[in-house]
Design brief:
The chain is of the alpha/beta class. The protein contains 20 helices and 16 strands. The mean pLDDT is about 95.
Length: about 500
């Protein structure tokens, strides 16, 4: 339930906690039936009308009462299917049990054995397609939306730890005498750096931008992921002894191989992400007023174009905005355009809502805030106005045909259905590819036809002592999948350097 009243939700949770306590006072513990009868806890959110005009975080987080009630829903399955669904293998039943008992520092310690970014993962990871998809509670009650809300509990634990000033750093490791370079400070790079530092290696992170965090800083909006959280996570690594070199573009500032041959590193991890935007190759895409979602979001997020009173970042003035695409980036761009003052924002997607890859929660939030959706629609060209700027889209209708390789039904254009719709701004959000810089400047580094670095099962590249992971290998994926690859690469590098 979006926009739910925080006070009402907290009061309802208190009543539920009292009911649970009464069961235990009666001399028995909660059985499976009792736990399945506990209602899933909704997330309190800002009111849609208010939040569409500000950049403050939309979801406000669980109260303590809500967190404990939600944690009581966990069945503590012996086979722990939720753990198998987590790319970094967090001990989910372990930390959830501690939340139910009110031991929040203990819960944080359990999470951080395998995940040093819980405040981020709890906010932006697609739990409904990972740990929560395999949850026994959800399957028993007929839908993933009824699963234990693992992501929300993870966020609660991380936020509680930070608010109470209880953040614990790992013990200082014994220096190993080995040095590792990490290229890119996104989720894969930060996770790899943390695991390497825990083993005592000297770790230097090279970041092309002026701030650490990668896609978490330039791609995900403030209202979904406050940038202070990313900054604090990077500072945690710095406190552990990880060194950050910002405004350093490996492949230009320094060649990749030179890190090994000249700078004395024993190994390199490449986690540079997928920051090269894709376009649709339609007429008019080069007109003024047409943007990649990558550029649009970078201006708004990293460069804070929304803060017009203090930021000198130029942002294109928009009245009617078309966002092309159906993923999370499209939702981020559409919701950002509203907050930047657009009068109307429409998402054009050539399939239906059921096929959209975006998280259901993000689609619902966008709709609540006033974003309109034109399903089974896609543009064929951008039309210019008298001033030579984008003024309209020629839009064609589609219908769904047979399923494609991904399992989604393929969109089929309907001949003669073209119509012209006025838009002064077009944001293309149809995906990103890997930046070709490293492949072009490192001839022996093998990549596929899309520029993704090729790796083996332990993330090793075609170059000796060079490993890679995250979106540069997977293509545009998720924060938690990138973290999983960073962990796997760190384990391989640690084995190499023993």
């Amino acid at each position: 339930m979006s926009g739910a009243d925080f006070g009402e939700l907290r009061r309802a949770a208190k009543v539920e906690l009292e009911r649970i306590a009464a069961i235990r006072l009666g001399g028995r513990d909660l059985g499976p039936r009792d736990r399945l009868a506990i209602p899933a806890q909704d997330m309190p959110c800002q009111d849609p009308a208010a939040r569409s005009a500000n950049v403050f975080e939309v979801a406000e987080g669980y109260s303590e009462e809500q967190a404990r009630v939600e944690a009581e829903r966990c069945l503590g399955c012996r086979n722990a299917p939720c753990v198998a669904g987590c790319p970094v293998g967090v001990d989910i039943p372990g930390f959830v049990k501690l939340v139910a008992a009110g031991d929040y520092p203990g819960a944080a310690r359990v999470i951080k054995r395998t995940n040093l970014l819980p405040s981020i993962c709890g906010r932006v990871c697609p739990q409904e397609k990972q740990c929560q998809e395999t949850c026994t509670v959800g399957k028993s009650l007929g839908g993933v939306e009824r699963a234990v809300q693992i992501g929300r509990l993870e966020r609660f634990v991380a936020d509680r730890e930070r608010a109470c000033g209880l953040c614990e750093l790992p013990e200082a490791p014994t220096p190993s005498g080995r040095r590792v370079a990490v290229v890119g400070s996104g989720p894969a790079g930060l996770t790899c750096a943390a695991d390497l530092r825990r083993e005592g290696h000297e770790v230097v992170v090279y970041e092309a931008f002026q701030k650490a965090g990668g896609v978490m800083v330039y791609g995900i909006p403030e209202f979904r992921l406050p940038k202070d959280l990313v900054r604090l996570e990077a500072e945690t690594l710095a406190s552990m002894g990880v060194r950050f070199e910002l405004n350093f573009l490996v492949g230009r500032t320094r060649q990749l191989k030179a890190l090994l041959s000249e700078d004395g590193f024993d190994a390199v991890f490449v986690g540079t992400g997928a920051g090269l935007p894709k376009f649709m190759d339609m007429p008019g895409e080069n007109l003024v007023g047409v943007f990649s979602a990558n550029e649009y979001l970078t201006r708004a997020n990293l460069m804070k174009a929304w803060d017009r009173g203090r930021a000198a970042t130029p942002i294109y003035p928009s009245r009617r905005v078309a966002v092309l695409g159906g993923g999370n980036v499209a939702m981020d761009a559409a919701r950002t355009a509203l907050r930047l003052g657009a009068e109307e924002v429409r998402v054009l997607y050539r399939r239906t809502r059921e096929e959209m890859p975006a998280r259901a929660e993000e689609v619902v939030h966008a709709m609540e805030e006033g974003v309109a959706f034109d399903f089974l629609s896609s543009p064929t060209r951008v039309l210019a106005g008298e001033d030579g700027r984008a003024a309209a889209l020629e839009v064609q209708a589609f219908e769904l045909g047979e399923a494609d390789a991904s399992g989604r039904r393929s969109p089929v254009p309907i001949r003669g259905s073209e119509r012209v719709v006025p838009f002064d701004t077009v944001i293309v959000a149809v995906g990103n590819e890997s930046n070709p810089l490293l492949a072009r400047t490192t001839p022996d580094l093998k990549v596929d036809r899309r520029g993704h670095i090729l790796v083996d099962e332990r993330q090793k590249t075609s170059l000796e002592r060079v490993y890679a992971g995250g979106d540069i290998v997977l293509g545009a994926a998720t924060v938690i999948l990138a973290m999983g690859e960073g962990r796997r690469a760190a384990a391989a590098i640690n084995d190499l350097l023993q």
